[in-house]
């Protein structure tokens, strides 16, 4: 939590770098999990494509280049398919699908981070932002509310959990835990809204509802992925907390919906 909040909040450059690290970590762990299931995705082409997507998003969001540069992703996808022709895989389309899927699953959602910060006013960075019109408020508020939701869900689930939410996917999750996280997230959003800015207090409350509901589904989707690959934790980068995917599975699903809400109604 300190690394994520500090990175996003400190300075525009640390904001961008933190997003890069999270994106690269989640994609790489996905590839490792899929390899454990016997499929052999092409890690290097996939990572290059994800990094290219994030880089273009930073440049477009900051106004340094035009959206037309996203067309560079077309040859990147084509080259990835051509590379597969020379790998002599027994199931090339399984490999190809799992090479490209994390670009959609992880890189696309996380590439929205720059668009949520450049061009917005609200909470300032800890270090002066110079001439940039930039605020990390949306991302910082998002993660604070997400972690409040997770903490509330854990505490309520441990103390009150009786009814399983989706036992075949995640036996430990309960409806009582989900309700506890939901309530605490709304309270946190209500209290933090004047400090964060960007949208109104009622807007942040709506965002907290999106985070609670979509974040739960994000966690269940990653649990489904781990069950299908026979993996307990996505990685060991954070001892006792699993890997990047374990930490940011909720983000991958809920942040795009939060960004959509702010773009349309914020």
Tell me what you see in this structure.
The protein has 266 residues and is mainly alpha-helical. The chain has one domain. Helices cover 70% and strands 3% of the residues. It has helices at 2-10, 12-36, 43-61, 73-85, 92-110, 113-117, 137-160, 175-196, 201-229, 244-265; strands at 164-166, 170-174. The chain has a two-stranded antiparallel ribbon. Strand 1 (164-166) and strand 2 form a beta hairpin. Helix 2 (12-36) packs antiparallel against helix 5, helix 7 (137-160) runs antiparallel to helix 8 and helix 7 (137-160) packs across helix 9 (201-229). The chain starts with a helix and ends with a helix.
Question: Which keywords apply here?
Answer:
single chain, 2 strands, 266 residues, mainly alpha, two-stranded antiparallel sheet, 10 helices
Mean pLDDT: 87
Residue share in helices?
A: over 70%
- Overall geometry: flat
Which class do the helix and strand fractions yield? mainly alpha
The number of distinct β-strands equals 2
**Quick one: biggest sheet?**
2 strands, antiparallel
Q: Span between N and C termini? A: 26 Å
- Poorly predicted regions are none
